[in-house]
Amino acid sequence: MTHPTPSASCVSQTSLTASIGNIKTVSSRLIRKEYPWLAKKYFYNKPYFWTGAYFVASCGGVTVEQLKNYVENQEQPKQ
């Protein structure tokens, strides 16, 4: 099973925390609109879709292709 791994590059006057919050808010709204049954089935009709947590890493000196290759070739967690 692969996990979605979005990557972004931007220059903004908005703080990183606010930008992540905006992305989560908008994507939650779009997902709930497009797939309303997911909220009922998996999220128990709670008013939130994402948790408050997020992870950000900087990858200076590495190309996007190298980063994608690294992520795609990680070992899967042992179950």
Summarize the structure in words.
With 79 residues, this protein is mostly helical. 44% of the residues lie in helices and 0% in strands. The chain has helices at residues 16-34, 36-42, 64-72. Helix 1 crosses helix 2 (36-42). It starts with 15 loop residues before the first helix and ends in a 7-residue tail after the last helix. The model has no long low-confidence stretch (mean pLDDT 77).
Helix and strand topology:
Elements: H1 16-34, H2 36-42, H3 64-72
Question: Could you name the key traits of this structure?
Answer:
79 residues; 44% helix
Q: Which residue ranges are poorly predicted, with pLDDT under 50 across at least 5 consecutive positions?
A: none
Query: If you compute it from the alpha carbons, what radius of gyration comes out, rounded to the nearest whole angstrom?
Result: 16 Å
Report the count of strand segments. Answer: 0
Largest sheet, if any? none
Strand % is under 5%
N-to-C SSE string, H for helix and E for strand: HHH
Which structural class should the secondary elements be placed in?
mainly alpha
Helix count equals 3
Give the integer mean of the pLDDT values. Answer: 77
How far the N terminus sits from the C terminus, by CA atoms, comes to 12 Å
What percentage of residues falls in helices of 4 or more residues?
A: 40-55%
Taken from the alpha-carbon principal axes, the silhouette is extended
